[in-house]
């Protein structure tokens, strides 16, 4: 999908979710032919001409000012991530950044291996898991057994039935969060061919992914909570935080999980840590070298 089409469809999707009463627009009559606000109503709220706004929904953003984008964003009631995404679609950033890590810095792997009672891993810009500790595989997916080309959370969430079963009723939430993050990433690097290939593959192989992608939700991944129905230790509730790695531009972030102290989840993690024979990325590398 071209950037112009992305811009137009994003604006239409955000306009469709607003009702006249949400923004103080009089709703004349009980029947409306369009879902959400009319383009004329949105243009009036943003303080731009209808013709100008129509051009934006047609994907024509050449010369559009930051002030107009801010006005449209405010009228659409975009959140901060959506606001940034709109600006990036209209004014694509120019980035020159390596996307394939040559090697993981040893201190990062040592940090992961030192975390023995909670999952922790380093992820790249394509949700690809670059390095992980043993509990990551024990709790989520046995990453050592996953083909390298599918060792991404996007593949596992949308295409791995065993992982879907572990997520249980929480799968829809996790899947939507993943799709929204991929759309956020596509706004950061609109010309990233590897990212586009990943998204196209998932749209082709997963009808659920395609449905969620068409909703145009946009969210960065900063923190949250994982809920896992583990076959050995039962339900796990694991809050997580993400830490950016500014010294490693070819990596995205470090993901750290921690169960609430004294909780059943903490006790379950300790049992898994004591009994699991899953491999960390360091274990897998050592095995492949021997």
Give a structural overview:
The protein is α+β, with helices and mostly antiparallel strands. The chain folds into 2 domains: 3-90, 434 Repressor (Amino-terminal Domain) (Orthogonal Bundle), CATH 1.10.260.40; 106-289, Beta-Lactamase, CATH 3.30.450.180. Helices cover 50% and strands 11% of the residues. The chain has 15 helices and 5 strands. The protein has helices at 3-16, 20-23, 39-46, 50-57, 66-76, 80-90, 106-114, 134-139, 153-159, 161-167, 171-188, 193-205, 207-213, 264-275, 281-289, and strands at 120-123, 129-132, 223-230, 234-244, 253-257. α3 packs across α4 (50-57). The longest helix is centred in the middle third of the chain and has 18 residues, at 171-188. The radius of gyration is 22 Å and the shape is elongated. The relative contact order is 0.12.
């Amino acid at each position: 999908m071209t950037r112009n089409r992305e811009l137009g469809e994003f604006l239409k999707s955000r306009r469709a979710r607003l009702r006249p009463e949400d923004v103080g627009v009089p709703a004349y009559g009980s029947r409306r032919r369009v879902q959400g606000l009319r383009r004329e109503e949105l243009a009036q709220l943003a303080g731009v001409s209808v013709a100008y706004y129509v051009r934006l929904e047609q994907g024509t953003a050449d010369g559009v000012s930051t002030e107009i984008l801010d006005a449209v964003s405010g009228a659409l009631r975009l959140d901060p991530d959506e606001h940034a995404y709109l600006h990036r679609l209209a004014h694509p950033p120019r980035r020159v950044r390596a996307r394939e890590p040559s090697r993981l810095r040893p201190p990062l792997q040592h940090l992961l291996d030192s975390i023995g009672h909670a999952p922790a891993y380093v992820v790249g810009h394509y949700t690809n898991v670059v390095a992980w500790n043993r509990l990551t595989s024990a709790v989520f997916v046995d990453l050592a057994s996953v083909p390298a080309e599918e060792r991404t959370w996007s593949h596992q969430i949308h295409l791995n039935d065993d992982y879907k079963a572990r997520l249980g009723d929480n799968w829809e939430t996790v899947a939507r969060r993943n799709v929204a993050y991929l759309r956020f990433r596509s706004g950061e690097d609109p010309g990233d061919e590897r990212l586009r290939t990943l998204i196209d593959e998932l749209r082709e192989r997963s009808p659920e992914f395609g449905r969620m992608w068409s909703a145009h939700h946009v969210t960065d991944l900063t923190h949250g909570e994982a809920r896992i129905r583990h076959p050995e230790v039962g339900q796990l509730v694991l809050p997580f935080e993400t830490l950016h790695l500014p010294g490693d531009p070819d990596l995205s972030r470090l993901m750290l999980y921690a169960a609430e102290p004294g909780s059943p989840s903490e006790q379950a993690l300790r049992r898994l840590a004591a009994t699991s024979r899953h491999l960390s990325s360091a274990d897998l590398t050592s095995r492949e070298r021997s």
